[in-house]
Specification:
This protein has eleven helices and no strands. It is mostly helical. The chain has one domain. The longest helix has 33 residues. The protein is globular, with a radius of gyration of 19 Å.
């Protein structure tokens, strides 16, 4: 079932439709355009640290592939995927350029499958960690910087950038935990699946990409993961409030 090949240009066409429809919205709404520009730093940070985390954890498990190809880097241009970045900006979900890893190089203390799961989980966990760090910074500035800073133009822009970065990192983290190939979540659950289920996921990986894009266009995917994003956001903000006040 679902095991057939397709032209990947179909995905690019669907993505193009999403991007173009959102561009028209931004052109007709200056405030939305400003919000889009404010999200760019958050997108760069989220994708860069997400992909770096994959490569770093793989390196710690014994795989030098990412390091040898220059991907153990915090340079955003080493990790940005043009289409994935546009999607994150305009559609609310996206991806970076996958970090190359070779599970055969992982330490033999764990299985290759478990190693892949750990490496895959590193990206989303890094995004959640960044969201927590930015939350602490946000609350610290709000508590200690004073009214003069918070009411200034610079202060408001800084607080906006931090706030947007929190949202983007949580969104990217949750999105990548969806257990559908080729997202990180599918590799995280692999060690827990029976053999036939694993083969079914691998054999139908391509079609899942189209299914997911369709689900997102129709709003079904957003309806499913929005409560998760909202719940994690509330939890992180409450944590910042409790610790910093």
């Amino acid at each position: 079932m679902f095991n057939f090949s397709f032209d990947k240009r179909i995905i690019y066409i669907l993505i193009g439709i999403i991007v173009l429809s959102n561009i028209m919205t931004y052109i007709n709404n200056p405030s939305a355009l400003f919000a889009l520009l404010a999200s760019i730093p958050g997108v760069l940070l989220a994708i860069t640290f997400h992909e770096f985390a994959h490569g770093f954890v793989a390196y710690k498990l014994g795989d030098n592939t990412a390091k040898n190809e220059g991907r153990l880097s915090l340079n955003p241009f080493d990790h940005l995927d043009p289409i994935g970045s546009l999607m994150l900006l305009f559609a609310g979900f996206g991806w970076g350029k996958p970090v190359p890893v070779n599970p055969r190089n992982y330490t033999r203390k764990i299985s290759m499958e478990k190693g892949e799961a750990i490496v895959s989980a590193a990206g989303p966990m890094m995004n959640f960690l960044l969201a927590i760090i930015f939350t602490f910074i946000y609350f610290a500035l709000y508590r200690f910087s004073g009214v003069e800073f918070l009411s200034s133009t610079i202060g408001q822009i800084i607080m906006l950038l931090i706030n947007v970065s929190i949202s983007i990192n949580i969104g990217l983290g949750v999105f990548n935990l969806i257990p559908l190939p080729p997202l990180d979540g599918s590799k995280i659950i692999m060690p827990f699946l029976p053999y036939k289920a694993k083969q079914w996921f691998v054999n139908n990986e391509q079609i899942f990409s189209i299914i997911f894009v369709i689900l997102w266009i129709t709003g079904i995917a957003g309806t499913i993961i929005s409560p998760v994003i909202n719940g994690i956001t509330s939890g992180i903000l409450n944590l910042g409030h409790i610790i910093i006040g």
